[in-house]
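Prompt: I keep going back and forth on a fold encoding question. Comparing notes only helps if you start from a blank page. Show me how you would write down a chain together with its backbone fold. Please set it down just below, with no commentary around it:
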Amino acid sequence: MAFPLPTHLPRKKDARDVSTQILTKISETSSKTLNAQLASSWVAELDDTIKATKTRIHERIAGDLPNFERQLATSVSVQERLQSLSRNVDTLSESISHPQSGLIPNLVTTLASHAALAQENADVRAQHAALAHLLRCRNELRHLTGLVQKAELADATRASSSLGKCIDDAPEPLAKSEVMADMKRKSTALRNRTEEQLLDAYSRSIVVSQSEVVVKPYVQAVLPRRQINGSWAPSMLPQDNIDTTIRLPDVLASMTPAALSMHLATLRRDITTHCIEYTMKQPIQIYQTDTTGLTGTSQYKLSMQRAPPGVEDLSLRLANLTTVMAFLHSHLFPHLPPAERTSFPLSLCAPIRSAILNQLLLPNLPSTLSKLPDFLSLAKQAAQLEDEVVIQMLGDNGADRSIKSWVDNVGLHYERKRRAAILDRARAIVVSPPDDSTTFRVEVPLIVENVPIPVNLVDKPVTNGKHPEPVAADDDAWGFGDESPSQGNETSSQSDETSTDEWGFDDDIDPEPTPEPEPVPEPSKASVPESSTGTEDSTEDDPWGWNDDTEPTEPDDGSAWDDAWDEKPSAPEPVPPSPAPKPAKGLEKRFGGKSVPNSPAFPPPQSPAAPVHSSPPPPPPVASRKTKHTPVPPPLLIPATETYAVSGRTKDLLQLVEDVLREGAELVSSGILGGTPGSVIMQAAPMALELFRALVPVTNATVLKQSAKEPMRFSNDCLFVSHELRRIAMGLTGPKASARGKLEEGMERLRVLADSWFEETIAREERLIDELLDHAKGFIDTTHQERYDECEGAVNGVLQRIRRVAPQWKAVLTKSRYYDALGSIVEAALSRILGDILALEDITEVESHRLSELCHILNALEGLFMEDPEQPSFVVSHVPSWLKFSYLSELLEASIADISYLFEEGALVDFEIEELVKLVKALFADTPLRANTITKLQQGHPVRGS
């Protein structure tokens, strides 16, 4: 759409002609302004314009007159030629298109007559060809019908093929006719009848079943059939019987390729199933007979019957297979068509080899060494059958002699089968569920150092933060037969399962040393005594005391079993007397004027640096201490034992390992197999250990995850199997020595696995304790009763959890490992509480009292580290933070003077300076006394004179 121009813009002048201008003027003139004068002016203007135009034309012609005349003459000449051409075209059109004399009508009439004649000729030729082809088809159909009625199947097959080809080559008009369709139906019926007769003749010529194999070289034809109402039906007239005999090769040759391939495939399957595999699976009796019928036709029959029950000779199966294949090679294979006479027997080679291997050799591979010689004889006969039957009789080229290859490696196959059976047995042992009824306890030797108890034990000074160890005098200090109220029903049920002397503290039995043992896993630090250099070396090389070649020396005082698990304390060093400091009055007031723990009357407890088994009894005041000490006699090595629980399946597993090694050695010494026998069987021993390591954590995953005892018992199982493997490996000689490397590798892996499960179980309990203490939320805001209840519940939950776990571990672990494990989880709980409380920036008086009460809840755990109620506990040797935690509960309610006094006495050496400073700032307000105390603390722990 054009853009409209504004009316106020100037317009361009029109360059139009005079007529347009005049017409514009007329259109713009209104009826009021129109008059005769205006109209006459318009006419005059037009006349003037016409005259001017004519004048310009004449002037233009006059200016170029010769050229104008030439063009005019040319135009006249063109017009004349156009008229002449038009007359000629009209004449030609008349001569071509005239209805009577025109060229085109005459040509069309001639062509139509020629086309009709050609069509008539083509119809006659097609009719002749169709009739001739139909006559040929009729003759061949009659010929085929006669052959079918005479049961001449070979000729009938060829005639049927010729007739089918003739029908397919029929001309197109004939192919669509009804007569040809009827001929196709008859041809199909005759062909089907021929194939039916061939199939019937084939089925009566070759019979392969589970009970017999029948081959008839000649077979009598069946009765012919008559066509009744357009269909073929069996003839019921006796005169229709014919006496025609068909050869088996002709029957096979007369079949179509597709039918022959199908029948041969079925025959191959029947021979494989009923002749090859059947003879290999079970004992049978074979009878071969040749008979001649009334018609003079002979047949060859091979009858197969099951042998009576009894002892069977497996070599008879090979003989039966040879008989069957010889029968087929003589009476069946020669009748096959030439193309199949070679390929069909070759197709039976693979089934024969497979049946011999899978049905005879592999299932009857012996599982004991005594039956191996007879089987080797059978295997050699199988290899000989492969040469005689498969290669020579069936024509195999021998490139794939799988039976001979298998027989050459029969020793390897025997060992692999035995290894599979052994591993199946090992798997059954390993995946068996835990059974407490089969659990037994293993006694292990341990060398500890016994130090005679000084008469004045309390006079021994503190040396480098360490205290002397008291000696427990109770022979049954472990107390499996006793039940404490804190352990509940769970401990009671476990104590019923254990014997009176579960830890093996038998005074009359000494551990039997094992000759030349290899290094064993180093026990935990709590069970390794600190002694002189020579003693440390011996305990590190053999911490279980298996390398002791001499009888242990009896101690000079008391029984050797007074305290077999106490470790040797560090040698006492003389301490110069120190002035008696002034007691802290604040602590005396709190304890009613009595002697106050952590005061001069109760010197500070030991630092957890020394692994002792009991906290020291309170010594007398410093003023009454003696500087002269009774000399301590040299330490005496005392043989001791401890026990731990092991699952019963470990015995079965170790017995299986020993049986495997013994079987491998017997196989090598028997000399039945050549090469290097026994190596594969011996591999089953370390493989059984691998199954133990791999399957137990998987099959018992739920129990190991939910129970606290089962992971520790599995750790004990690994440790026990590792120790027993050491004994087994040390006794390996001769052929068994080849398995020593793998057994030692398995032994090391089991030791690592035992330590891993031991540590992981402890770590899991530590995580559970940490999750319980998460509910305390850092012990903040304990002034609120609700928050205090939450903190108290968390601490009580930790206490109950440790009390539940302790009896379960105590029932399965050795004494040393039990205290190490228990000490670890108690240490985790105390460290978490210490860290949370020391992290508080402000502790009010109410909070300090309540935090102290919460800390006192866990004091009940000290009873778990006591074997004799009359003796002090040895919690400090296994829980490094115990003294620090005990002092924390006192410091929370102590005054600045008490804290300063304890610091000067060296009782707070377990605390870092930063921790003490932060605790003082949190407990007390900012006063000059607090500032002086902090300054004193920042100078470091006091150094006691040596």
Q: What stands out?
A: The chain is about 55% helix and 5% strand. The mean pLDDT is 76. Residues 128-208+222-234 form one domain.
